[in-house]
From TrEMBL:
Phylogenetic lineage: Bacteria, Pseudomonadati, Bacteroidota, Cytophagia, Cytophagales
Domain DUF427: 1-87
Name used for this protein in its record: DUF427 domain-containing protein
Length: 93
């Protein structure tokens, strides 16, 4: 699977985990040079508190376009630190 934004592959893996229709990419599969930590967070009742990244590709920023659970609840431990995308990021094979 590939996550693409602004014509750039920002993550790529053959080992994503699909939950609620979202592909979660292993942390080592993201191209860190495009990721900037965000102050934004959200909460899921069964996964825990999500932290976010903004993407910066060729000077264009996609704010809070990726999220991950740094301290996932027990039911979601298998995706702890895995990264998922939204907000215009295309996830494709």
């Amino acid at each position: 699977m590939k996550a693409i934004w602004n014509n750039q592959v920002v993550a790529e893996s053959d080992d994503t985990i699909v939950i609620e229709g979202n592909h979660y990419f292993p942390p080592q599969s993201i191209k860190k040079e495009y990721f900037e930590k965000s102050d934004y967070s959200s909460t899921c009742h069964w996964k825990g508190t999500a932290s976010y990244y903004s993407l910066n590709v060729n000077g264009d920023v996609n704010k809070d376009a990726a999220w991950y659970y740094p301290d996932a609840k027990d039911l979601a431990k298998n995706i702890e630190n895995y990264v998922a995308f939204w907000n215009g990021v295309k996830v494709t094979e």
